[in-house]
């Protein structure tokens, strides 16, 4: 899985460079500020794709003495950097749009530039869809962040193409910098959302409610012989999910019988979660809290 994620990240670098070249050509041919904004975001795409490649390579390193839980969180640093780069790009676009409001000009060769931009957007959309599918399958925050960023780029590119077409057809020159400013606002929102989610991963946020409900259900179903499970804690670290809880068993149960229950629960959770580390603390019934997950 790690090799697959690394290949996808390397592919993202190649796609980002190709799309940047196409969008830069569209901007150079037209002089449109909106197409410039679209191209500037692709510069961020290249930097972000490189950061994701480095992060995924680092996260694949096995646990060592200084990092006994592995290096999976390196991917979150990539996503944080990508979010910060998106915000920087948006601010640069706003600056250019402000200047273009003061000195608007007619775009040159608008239809040729727009055709190139449409081609670049199509490439981005196809790659973003594939990255989202593979990112979910591989549970890779870096690939999912890249997919989300590319899809936001696709949405803004569609808006830019539509807007520059309006400028070319109507001669409303002020619409070009306005569209660039709107693009920047959309990019800012995308960057903020990505930063928030990435920081959440670094801060060990619990898994999403739907997955937590599934975990609790599996614990209840596979815990036959136990009395209850409490103090459940979960978190993600890259593509690995950590699950910790206390398992309460009858006081007279043997260690072997309790271990069998633990093995059964652990196997079910790993089958559901894929890459997972399960920690179970076994307690006698006097430690029961009469809350948490009850055994069916």
Task: Describe the protein in words.
The protein has 296 residues and is of the alpha+beta class. It has two domains: 201 residues, Up-down Bundle (Alpha-lytic protease prodomain-like); 86 residues, Alpha-Beta Plaits (2-Layer Sandwich). Helix content is 69%, strand content 10%. A four-stranded mixed beta sheet has the order 3-2-1-4, with helices on one face. β1 and β2 form a beta hairpin. α7 packs antiparallel against α8. Its main location: membrane. Keywords: Membrane, Transmembrane, Transmembrane helix, Transport. It is found in: Membrane.
CATH superfamily of the largest domain: Cation efflux protein transmembrane domain
* Spatial arrangement of strands, main beta sheet: 3-2-1-4
Low-confidence stretches: none
Reported by name, the CATH topology of the largest domain is Alpha-lytic protease prodomain-like
Cα shape: elongated
Strand content: 5-15%
Count of discrete domains:
2
The oligomeric state of the chains shown is: single chain
The whole-number mean of residue pLDDT values reads 82
Strand element count: 4
> In CATH's first tier, which class of the largest domain applies?
Mainly Alpha
Structural class: alpha+beta
Radius of gyration: 25 Å
Number of helices: 8
First-residue to last-residue Cα separation: 35 Å
Q: How many strands, what sense, and barrel or not for the largest sheet? A: 4 strands, mixed
Order of helical and strand elements: HHHHHHHEEHEE
Q: Which range best describes the helical content: under 10%, 10-25%, 25-40%, 40-55%, 55-70% or over 70%?
A: 55-70%
CATH architecture of the largest domain: Up-down Bundle
Domain Cation efflux protein transmembrane: 13-203
Protein name: Cation transporter
Domain Cation efflux protein cytoplasmic: 211-285
Transmembrane segments: 7-30, 42-62, 74-94, 109-129, 150-172
């Amino acid at each position: 899985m790690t090799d697959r994620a690394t290949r996808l990240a390397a592919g993202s670098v190649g796609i980002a460079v190709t799309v940047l070249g196409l969008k830069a050509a569209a901007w150079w041919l037209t002089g449109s500020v909106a197409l410039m904004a679209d191209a500037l975001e692709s510069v961020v795409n290249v930097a972000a794709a490189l950061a994701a490649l480095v992060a995924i390579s680092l996260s694949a390193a096995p646990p060592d003495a200084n990092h006994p839980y592995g290096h999976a969180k390196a991917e979150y640093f990539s996503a944080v950097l990508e979010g910060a780069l998106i915000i920087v790009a948006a601010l640069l676009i706003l600056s250019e749009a402000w200047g273009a409001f003061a000195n608007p000009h007619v775009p040159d060769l608008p239809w040729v530039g727009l055709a190139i931009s449409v081609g670049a957007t199509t490439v981005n959309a196809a790659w973003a869809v594939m990255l989202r599918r593979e990112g979910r399958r591989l549970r890779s925050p870096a690939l999912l962040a890249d997919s989300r960023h590319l899809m936001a780029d696709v949405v803004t590119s569609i808006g830019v193409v539509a807007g520059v077409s309006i400028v070319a057809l109507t001669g409303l020159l002020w619409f070009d910098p306005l569209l660039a400013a709107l693009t920047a606002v959309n990019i800012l929102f995308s960057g903020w959302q990505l930063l928030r989610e990435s920081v959440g991963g670094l801060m060990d946020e619990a898994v999403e409610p739907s997955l937590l409900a599934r975990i609790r259900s599996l614990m209840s179903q596979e815990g036959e012989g136990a009395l209850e499970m409490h103090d459940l804690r979960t978190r993600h670290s890259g593509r690995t999910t950590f699950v910790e809880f206390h398992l309460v068993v009858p006081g007279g149960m043997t260690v072997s019988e309790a271990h069998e229950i633990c093995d059964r629960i652990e196997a079910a959770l790993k089958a559901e979660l894929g890459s997972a580390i399960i920690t179970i603390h076994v307690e006698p019934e006097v430690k029961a809290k009469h809350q948490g997950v009850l055994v069916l």
